[in-house]
Design brief:
By secondary structure, this protein is mainly alpha-helical. It is built from 7 helices and 4 strands. Strand 1 and strand 2 form a beta hairpin. It is globular, with a radius of gyration of 15 Å.
Length: 140
């Protein structure tokens, strides 16, 4: 190995090392619980100077930021792992879940629906309702 050359991606190592920490159904249940507790909440994208615009983030200021980020932390995924999802090239939940081996899990399609609606300005309850209507009641 050449001196100073990294052979592996530390973000992927973190995700792979923590793969057992994700339970897709628990993630859906925590998402539902948060939406029930905060039905009218509308997520606000965060301004990111590096990205030169507004961006959705799983973690901001050391806390869960979006609905899925907060739900993941509540479901037992370590904060540092959830924060690492923001460092991936594509941060959509479909890419996160596929890295854990859940690309085809019904919860993934449901979480994608919730995330897309939330990022588009829907209330959390509205995002969950739309995902239930479009994908089915996963983890209910």
């Amino acid at each position: 190995m050449k001196e100073g050359v990294m052979v592996s991606d530390p973000v992927v190592e973190t995700i792979d090392a923590e793969a057992v920490a994700i339970d897709p159904v628990a993630l859906v249940r925590e998402t539902r619980k948060l939406a029930e507790q905060n039905p009218d909440f509308v997520y606000t994208k965060i301004f990111d100077d590096e990205w030169d615009g507004y961006k959705c983030r799983y973690v901001e200021a050391g806390c869960g930021s979006c609905l899925v980020g907060q739900a993941a932390i509540n479901a037992g995924v370590p904060l540092r792992v959830v924060a690492s999802w923001d460092l991936l090239g594509d941060t959509g939940i479909e890419h996160v879940m596929s890295r854990y081996g859940f690309a085809d899990h019904p919860a993934t399609a449901w979480l994608i629906g919730v995330q897309v609606d939330q990022d588009g300005g829907a209330t959390w309850a509205g995002a969950v309702h739309d995902a239930d209507r479009n994908v089915g009641e996963v983890g209910a």
